[in-house]
Design brief:
One of its GO terms (cellular component) is SCF ubiquitin ligase complex. By secondary structure, this protein is of the alpha/beta class. Among the domains are: 112 residues, no CATH class; 166 residues, Ribonuclease Inhibitor (Leucine-rich repeat, LRR (right-handed beta-alpha superhelix), Alpha-Beta Horseshoe), CATH 3.80.10. The protein has 23 helices and 15 strands. The chain has a 15-stranded parallel beta sheet. α12 links the parallel β5 and β6. α1 packs parallel to α3. The chain starts with 6 loop residues before the first helix and ends with a helix.
Length: 549
């Protein structure tokens, strides 16, 4: 098969298989001949971070199968570590692009990683990495096995592996503050750090080492960072990098990021494309300081407190953010979570002809107060994905009409998620859902809440020729005839359709036999599947009005 093919073609073929995550074929190539072994193995290990066994992600319905996954997972990591010690035939670690210590930590945490699996992993040359926590005397008396000292183990493994992973472009996971100072000079191709604890950046030498040794570094993600001066330390790190180098920056949980770091991010205003911020109440009033970052393509803001309405309490900040977002002409994705002023803010931004979003997510807003936001949405005709979540209490006929009419303008939508809570009257019922379905012919994924949803919606929905997933998080009264008729009208574009009915009205529930008929019809027609659940706490749902009275 490989006779006559030059080596560069073999490498290209293996690279393509790696891009497609076709690990089985790459393994067969590696096993088939000496000529194919090196390109196949190098492609395999460049993509090892995406292997199906990593993270224990492989579905395992039985304990035996679960154990097999953990064994494969540990063997993969053992081969990587052994290769760094020159104990394998091929230098697997030299091919690695992503050094995912987060994944290694998950493996050590897994309950199945004990007994024989752990003994095998830490056997032979890896015995030096077997480090345990000090076990209290009472636990020792009870015969409990000491817990692994995961932090020390990962640090020791990382110390050896990073000596050989010169191709590594990304490091993720729980890394000690002292480790980056040792490891960075060994990683000339490092582009990205995804840190569990931002304290690893607390040493002021880190930014300078990255500047000197990692000219392609452009992405930073931090999960958490506790301390009183974290904002200052983070700002010093950001400012210490070469100007306009960061393309992506993310804080995921509590990090203390606030005014100083926001100002430092402006030193990367020309390069910064993706900005994801999980912030606290103390940072919200300083968001206007980011006004220089106008080349953003993605902006994601999560207000962890969910308590500050800057339109009402910090109007100067509210106005600054309007100006800032209007200047972000390259913005394509915008997400707000628990940000109480988001809808009012976007009402002043989305109408700007220079703002052409493709993805928008917004929660925590009152439908009745945001007519201007809904009208502004009509200008965003490039939207592919829209996720709106909020409260629909005290809505009027005009509120509902404006909402549905505005969304009906978004003809390019592929993915629509609408989740609204109400103690009074639901925003979405048969007429509203039917209107949306009729006017959004390109929908592929639909997740929708509501009340009193019947077969009439299914009849309209059968016209969505590209629908692949529909989730009714709504009180439904579908009949067996309505569902079978819906399935019968599906076409080739609906292949693999997933139908989830999560809140079926118990008074009109399908029998087990009827559910199975629909499942069989879905499989036969488009290879699809059905999940069917009754409304939980039926009495509480239907008596809520009486209880409130």
């Amino acid at each position: 098969m490989t006779v006559g093919l030059p080596d560069d073609i073999l490498h290209l073929v293996c690279d393509e298989l790696s891009e497609q995550r076709d690990f089985a074929t790459l393994f067969e190539c590696a096993s088939s001949s000496k000529r194919l072994a090196i390109p196949a193995l190098s492609a395999l290990y460049r993509a090892q971070h995406a292997a199906p066994v990593k993270g224990g992600s492989e579905s395992s319905p039985t304990m035996a199968e679960r154990l097999l996954v953990i064994q494969k997972w540990s063997i993969l990591w053992r081969s990587i570590v052994l290769s760094s010690l020159s104990k394998t035939l091929f230098p697997y670690c030299k091919y690695i692009k992503v050094l995912d210590f987060r994944d290694l930590n998950y493996m050590f945490e897994d309950d199945m990683f004990r007994g024989q699996v752990a003994q095998t992993f830490f056997g032979g040359d890896l015995s030096k990495y077997h480090k345990v926590q000090d076990t209290p005397s009472k636990a020792r008396l009870r015969g409990r096995a000491p817990l692994l000292d995961r932090t020390s183990i990962i640090d020791a493994i990382g110390e050896d592996v990073t000596l050989q992973t010169h191709m590594a472009e990304q490091i993720t996971g729980p890394i000690l503050a002292s480790a980056l100072v040792r490891w960075i000079p060994r990683l000339p191709r490092l582009r990205s750090l995804q840190l569990w604890d931002g304290a690893a950046l607390g040493d002021e030498r880190v930014a300078n080492l990255i500047t000197v040794h990692c000219p392609e570094f452009d992405d930073l993600s931090i999960y958490q960072w506790d301390g009183d001066d974290t904002d200052h330390k983070l700002s010093v790190f950001i400012a210490g990098l070469p100007s306009n180098h960061l393309h992506g920056f993310e804080t995921i949980s509590k990090t203390g990021i606030a005014a100083e770091s926001f100002l430092s991010l402006n030193s990367h205003a020309d390069s910064l494309r993706d900005l994801k911020l999980a912030i606290g109440a103390d940072a919200v009033p300083h968001l206007g300081l980011l006004k220089g970052c106008t080349n953003l393509e993605l902006l994601d803001i999560v207000d962890g407190s969910g308590t500050i309405d800057i339109e009402k309490t910090q109007n100067d900040v509210f106005l600054e953010m309007i100006v800032w977002l209007r200047d972000c002409h390259k913005l394509r994705e915008l997400n707000f979570t628990k940000f109480l002023s988001a809808a009012a803010l976007l009402a002043q931004v989305l109408g700007d002809q220079n703002i052409r979003l493709e993805h928008l997510k917004l929660d925590s807003y009152l439908v009745k107060d945001q007519r201007d936001f809904h009208l502004a949405l009509t200008h965003q005709t490039n939207l592919i994905s829209l996720n709106l979540e909020g409260n629909s209490d005290t809505i009027t006929f005009d509120d509902r009409s404006t909402f549905v009419d505005s969304l009906s303008h978004l003809k390019e939508l592929r993915d629509l998620k609408l989740v609204f809570r109400s103690d009074e009257v639901d925003l979405l019922t048969d007429p509203e859902i039917s209107t949306l379905v009729e006017n959004l012919p390109n929908l592929q994924e639909l997740y929708i809440s509501g009340y009193g949803v019947t077969d009439a919606v299914l009849e309209k929905m059968s016209g969505l020729r590209s629908l692949r997933s529909v989730n009714f998080f709504a009180v439904t009264t579908f009949t067996i005839d309505g569902l079978l008729d819906f399935v019968d009208k599906l076409g080739p574009g609906n292949q693999g359709l997933s139908v989830v009915i999560d809140m079926a009205d118990p008074e009109s529930a399908l029998t087990e036999e009827e559910q199975n008929l629909v499942r069989e019809a879905l499989v036969a027609k488009v290879g699809g599947r059905l999940e069917y659940q009754l409304l939980r706490d039926y009495d509480a749902f239907y008596n809520s009005d009486e209880d409130s009275d």
